[in-house]
Amino acid sequence: MSNEERKPGRPRVEYNFPTEWQKIILDAGEKGLHITQFLLELGISWETHSQLLKRNRQYSETVERYKILCENYWYNQMHEHMQETGGTGYNSRLWSLIMRNKFGDRWSEASKVDVTSQGNSIQSNPIQIEIIKKTITEDDAQK
Question: pTM score, two decimals?
Answer without folding.
Answer: 0.65
